[in-house]
Amino acid sequence: xxxxxxxxxxxxxxxxxxxxxxxxxxxxxxxxxxxxxxxxxxxxxxxxxxxxxxxxxxxxxxxxxxxxxxxxxxxxxxxxxxxxxxxxxxxxxxxxxxxxxxxxxxxxxxxxxxxxxxxxxxxxxxxxxxxxxxxxxxxxxxxxxxxxxxxxxxxxxxxxxxxxxxxxxxxxxxxxxxxxxxxxxxxxxxxxxxxxxxxxxxxxxxxxxxxxxxxxxxxxxxxxxxxxxxxxxxxxxxxxxxxxxxxxxxxxxxxxxxxxxxxxxxxxxxxxxxxxxxxxxxxxxxxxxxxxxxxxxxxxxxxxxxxxxxxxxxxxxxxxxxxxxxxxxxxxxxxxxx
Length: 338
Description:
The structure is a single chain. With 338 residues, the chain is mainly α. It has one domain: Farnesyl Diphosphate Synthase, CATH 1.10.600. Helices cover 72% and strands 1% of the residues. The chain has a two-stranded antiparallel ribbon. The radius of gyration is 20 Å and the shape is globular.
């Protein structure tokens, strides 16, 4: 039997998820927080009038549904897990937009820009509590275990965000710290999504753990590719200027790998200076990061993480069709290769 295309896999997840997600928002959020959530999800405009649209790729909930199938159940049996992980993901987006000062998302004003910072923060908080309620009240044998796992991943994601913000103020960030931050900020929730459906249904711990580690490797590979694109990506594909991350002096993985290398005094002086980088400065920093091995290290590490993720799937004992669909979605997540 042929493997469904990525579009089919994602569309199936979206079809299952949307009514369940709408029900969760309606049931667990009050009128005002529900209004902000509906706007953020794209279901309604600022006046709470239906729009008939819905943004987002639904990667994490699709992985949670596949996780239920990995445990031998139907995808629909993993719906509480899919809903919960999507609620947590959107909590992070609401707060990220505020922290980053982003005024647009998916082609329209962000929630904080429309409703104000305090209400957008509270709406994000409400989504986390809704995620907990959805999982704890689910009929699966592993409801408690799944809830604890998701909240642990959420805490790690928050810690990763905090570390990322702290790195902006520090000159002594090590590569080990940066890898740990990326694993927490990006990998933890993806890993949880990959394992959550199976965990909810009371699957064997070996399967749950293999799926979780698979997702964490994929999450870190994604971050490595994203960081490479932030320096060397094609603006026609990324929508960003060449060297966009360097202009804001982001402590991305390739940069920290280069700064950690010996003989990088010129790079450190340029990158850690308070003076703005002009075009020639950006070009010079780009050259120095590559010369110090930052680009090669990030490429090699992304490849290593992808290989490790494949080993996790091979070791999980999945049905062939489920394994193929996991690989299809994972390929999309890290598919923006250089």
